[in-house]
Design brief:
Layout (H helix, E strand, L loop, with lengths): L1 H7 L1 H17 L3 E5 L13 E6 L3 H7 L13 E2 L13 E7 L8 H10 L1 E12 L14 H9 L3 H16 L10 H10 L11 H14 L4 E9 L2 E8 L2
Parallel strand pairs: 1-2, 1-4, 2-3, 4-5
Antiparallel strand pairs: 5-7, 6-7
Helix pairs in contact: 6-7
Length: 241
Amino acid sequence: MRLARLVRHPRLWRYGQIRRGVAEGSIAGHGIELGALHSPFPVPKQARVEYVDHLTTPQLRAEYPELADLPLVEVDRVDDGERLATVADGSQDFVIASHFLEHCEDPVRTLEAHLRVLRPGGVVLLALPDRRHSVDRHRDATTLEHLVADHEQGPEASRAGHYRDWALLVDLPLGNIGADEVDAHAARLQERSYSIHFHCWTDEEFRRQMQAIIERFRLPARIAGHRRNHHEFLVTLERTA
């Protein structure tokens, strides 16, 4: 039965193989994964993972009723994954953020927090959707200037624009709202603090910006690896000091 499923879904099998291969080459020791929900990142058997989310598992089930029939990981630690206030400095060997960073209003601050909790030589493993092959396909790429402004000036100035962009270029093309309802829909999403993709990139766009951010903000990191994987791309950052 399992072999038959793999034959029917070769792309899904290959997608999982690439993820496992990247994890085998970068993940070891004890670390955390953020927002895993029903799809935890595959890690080597010897790795120990603590699952972190902003809500408990029962609260997540209530928050995401569309996942009711899917098994969710048991949340070990309730914390804001953009700040990791309860995680001690230099205490982790790895941080896995799979399809997480695009949901962050200030990715630079988030990466600073993730690097802070790593030991030297530890890694942040990022999985991000390629905007060309996701719900972001109608949207423009996030620019380096935008990321810097969100970090230095705070994300509040761009928040309403992000929600309107999402309403117009994601929800409207998908048929969820009418053209005359865009502003009202965006306002409702913002009022709920609905989790959208605040930012979007291709693999090359992200890596160029990541290198520029490392240099501009003197982050203790280097890009240790990257790999395209169907609709997503994977990037590993190594803490250097």
